[in-house]
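Hypothesis: this fold can be encoded by more than one sequence.
Test: take the structure tokens below, design a sequence, compare later.
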């Protein structure tokens, strides 16, 4: 198996991982549940891999009522029989796995993309036209070049693009990036594109990027100039709320924050490690400032804990909670 070929997983293990996702998302996990989950996670490497993949579903379950999710697992709703309960769980698993593989806007799974990165990994590669692409953690892209245009398809995650001069082509071809929410045309630029839950974020550092909503090249809705950013979906555009994160810092292998809420910082840091990383509600509004190396995010946690007088509770490497110091 090559370094970038995805490992096939037993569907039964994937189902177990999805069931754990539902349990942990919709129920207050007591110590016994946590211990049982951790035991399952550590039984074999395939469980860890399945959990890493399935936890990226995350908000795919946001539209499922919590009570329904609990009843699906327990089969207690008005005497629901176990067969009915398993059938409903299977439906959730089928829908969620389809979303996991298809990511809504494309029939080609992100896990089969030409270029991809694993959780915690940043990669860079150069295209034939001279363009340089950087992949953030857990990201995937395809490229589709022809005589008329250059196209990058963002399957998942986040990229930084340095558009090449396309010197080997008789004339410089337009450079496009397609995301789930629309199409971006870059004008000799350096820009960032990131898939978020509520849209695609585009930020320009040099040159400009023209944004077209949806899948057709309709009249441009917005032009993003150097030093600005925009969040867009197929239904519209809006300004991106600055939460204190330096959007570009990961390209240098760091996470840089200025007066950023601790909870937002922890959510961002969790992108770079497998498993569950969260902070307790009582410390969520504390503020973080600084620049930290992503290569060792355990060290990042230690530095933040020392600075803000916090406790880092490692139940396992895959279950970490930031709490107030006792």
């Amino acid at each position: 198996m090559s370094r970038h070929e995805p490992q096939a997983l037993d569907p039964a293990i994937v189902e177990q991982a999805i069931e754990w996702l539902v349990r942990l998302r919709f129920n207050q996990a007591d110590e016994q549940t946590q211990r049982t989950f951790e035991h399952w996670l550590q039984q074999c490497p395939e469980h860890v891999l399945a959990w890493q993949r399935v936890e990226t579903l995350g908000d795919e379950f946001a539209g499922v009522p919590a009570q329904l999710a609990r009843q699906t697992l327990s089969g207690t709703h008005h005497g629901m029989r176990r067969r009915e309960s398993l059938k409903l769980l299977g439906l959730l698993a089928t829908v969620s796995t389809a979303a996991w593989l298809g990511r809504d806007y494309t029939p080609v799974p992100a896990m089969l993309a030409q270029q991809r990165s694993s959780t915690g990994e940043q990669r860079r590669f150069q295209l034939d036209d001279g363009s340089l692409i950087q992949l953030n953690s857990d990201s995937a892209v395809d490229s589709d070049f022809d005589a008329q245009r250059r196209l990058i398809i963002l399957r998942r995650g986040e990229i930084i693009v340095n558009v090449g001069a396309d010197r080997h082509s008789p004339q410089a071809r337009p450079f496009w990036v397609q995301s789930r929410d629309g199409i971006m045309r870059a004008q000799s630029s350096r820009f960032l594109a990131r898939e978020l839950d509520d849209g695609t974020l585009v930020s320009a550092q040099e040159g400009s990027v023209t944004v077209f909503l949806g899948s057709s090249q309709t009249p441009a809705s917005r032009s993003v100039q150097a030093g600005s950013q925009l969040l867009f979906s197929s239904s519209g555009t809006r300004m991106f709320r600055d939460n204190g994160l330096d959007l570009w810092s990961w390209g240098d292998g760091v996470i840089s924050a200025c007066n950023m809420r601790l909870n937002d910082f922890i959510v961002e840091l969790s992108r770079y490690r497998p498993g569950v990383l969260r902070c307790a509600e009582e410390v969520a509004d504390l503020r973080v400032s600084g620049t930290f190396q992503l290569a060792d995010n355990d060290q990042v946690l230690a530095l933040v804990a020392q600075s803000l007088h916090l406790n880092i509770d490692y139940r396992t490497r895959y279950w970490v909670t930031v709490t107030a110091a006792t």
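Residues 82-102 form the longest helix (21 residues). The chain has three domains: 11-102, 112-238, 249-324.
Hypothesis status: open.
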